[in-house]
């Protein structure tokens, strides 16, 4: 998958699958790429490792990023994205079950565009993912830096 519109990053296979299922109700499933941890997410975005042949001039329009990931924390992924001109302006929605104000503050302090608490049931997840999709993919005016 070289030209996904949405990248979903979650290390919990059930959360990842359910999030993709919910998003698939709003968009073509072929437009969704997944990563199972922060390292894989950065490899995808920066065209490294198994994604070395990916055209990194074409980036996802949205990243839905779990905060508490194994191998590389979601905040570290966010920081790396914001430092690289290829990914600096991609909207990032942090998707976490944390209710800690310090976690939410840290996400915004590191330039997350949004913080969405993980749903407690599938209907709520479907509703939240539809709202995320509709806003970021259809309502929000995308910034495209000059080449």
Topology:
Elements: E1 6-9, H1 13-24, E2 32-35, H2 38-46, E3 62-66, H3 74-83, E4 92-96, H4 101-109, E5 114-117, H5 122-139
Parallel strand pairs: 1-2, 1-3, 3-4, 4-5
Structure description:
This protein has helices at 13-24, 38-46, 74-83, 101-109, 122-139; strands at 6-9, 32-35, 62-66, 92-96, 114-117. It is an alpha/beta fold and 147 residues long. It has one domain (6-136): Response regulator (Rossmann fold, 3-Layer(aba) Sandwich). α4 links the parallel β4 and β5. The two termini are 24 Å apart. The relative contact order is 0.17.
Please give a handful of descriptors for the protein shown.
147 residues; alpha/beta; Rossmann fold; five-stranded parallel beta sheet; 5 helices; globular
Helix share, percent: 25-40%
Might you state the CATH topology name?
Answer: Rossmann fold
- Count of beta strands: 5
Q: Please tell me the CATH architecture by its name.
A: 3-Layer(aba) Sandwich
* Spatial strand sequence of the major β-sheet: 2-1-3-4-5
Q: How confident is the prediction overall: mean pLDDT?
A: 94
CATH class placement: Alpha Beta
Largest sheet: 5 strands, parallel
Structural class: alpha/beta
Number of domains: 1
Strand content: 5-15%
Written as H for each helix and E for each strand, in order along the chain, the element string is EHEHEHEHEH
Count the DSSP helices.
5
Spans where pLDDT lies below 50 across 5 or more residues: none
Shape descriptor reads: globular
State the fourth-level CATH superfamily: Response regulator
